[in-house]
Amino acid sequence: MTDAQQLPQDHDTYPTQRSRRSILWRTKVRLQFTGWLQYLITAVVAAAFLAVAGLGWLIGVWQPLLLWTPLGIGLILLVISILDVITVKWGLRPAESLPRRSDHPNAFDMMRARRSCHSFQKRDLTEHDRSELMRVAAACTDRDRLIGTSPIRFEYIRATRLAWTVEGAHEFLVAIAPRNYDRLALLDVGRSLQKVVLHATRTGVSTCWIGPGANQTRVVEHLGDRFDPSLDHVVCICALGYRSRFLPLFIRLIERVQNRRLPLASLFFADPNLRVPLAADTAPFAAFGRCYEVCQWSPSSYNAQTTRCVAVAESRNGTARVARLDFFATTTSRFYAPVAVGIWCANWETGCAELGIPGHFAVLPADAPGIRGYPDVPHYDVSWIADPKS
């Protein structure tokens, strides 16, 4: 969907019509998508410290506190801001080497090693890496591999300045779902694209999920005739490329803040009311080992961690076993919450495959045991059902 009148309804965090008409908002958006906002913020903070230093000089008292300390901080931030513009914004920096293909001993180490990349090298993906990722993208969106029945697809585009917190990104996968709202299609987008992201991690290609921060208008422009506004909806985009070690200070701080996760006791539960934390280190739940951890560290929009999981055990022949895990969204978000659930699903099944635990995803009816209807949230989305081992 690209009609400007549809965007506020289609993107959960999109600003209101009133705020989008304000001069302040338009200025902010212009700075974002011209790539100057992240540098301007550091420069403004530096100017604020220098202003305090100037005030301290005029006052003439408490010089170490009011003059020299803010002067030193302000000058350091100003120098960093200038260097960031030169090395990152203008790209005047030493050539960086091509990352090697990752060689993690198991899927869990690979999933934990994956980090969102916010600064990419100027070089293009190699033809081999690009072709391999596109083959994986096509395979992951095959209808036989989806949970839902609606088709989804990933389109490749080359463009710049599609998202303000991603420096140097110029190659993207665009996730497209049907125009008519289908929650399972959005879940499939999250699950399928995360599988592509995990494969990219193995090849040494860095990635960054971009949802609300994407410039939807420019994305659609670059898709051209591959996008039909009457049939298609752009859900999100994913930047692809090789990680650069040069990163603006402001984005470094954002990464520090976002590199935190809720404890497992706040994410996995033993009851459908999401009140009793799951004892993941006791039988029979301990059999899933690090599957809980890789879900805990799954990416989500603004790192909101809106997904929760309920483990359901049963007794068979006197032995307790995990029958299924039910995945819930804890927010009313119609788009990014189901995408986040899908990302969890991808990490969970990848972990189970590593452990040799068979299972499949299915949507259970509302009257199934443990699946109760809620007036709002949590919203039940899908279940992973354990298959009997052969």
From TrEMBL:
Gene Ontology MF terms: oxidoreductase activity
Domain of life: Bacteria
Alphabetic keyword roster: Membrane, Transmembrane, Transmembrane helix
Protein name: Nitroreductase family protein
Keyword Ribonucleoprotein recorded: no
SUPFAM superfamilies: FMN-dependent nitroreductase-like (SSF55469)
Domain Putative nitroreductase TM1586: 108-267
InterPro entries per UniProt: Nitroreductase-like, TM1586_NiRdase
Positions of transmembrane segments: 36-59, 65-92
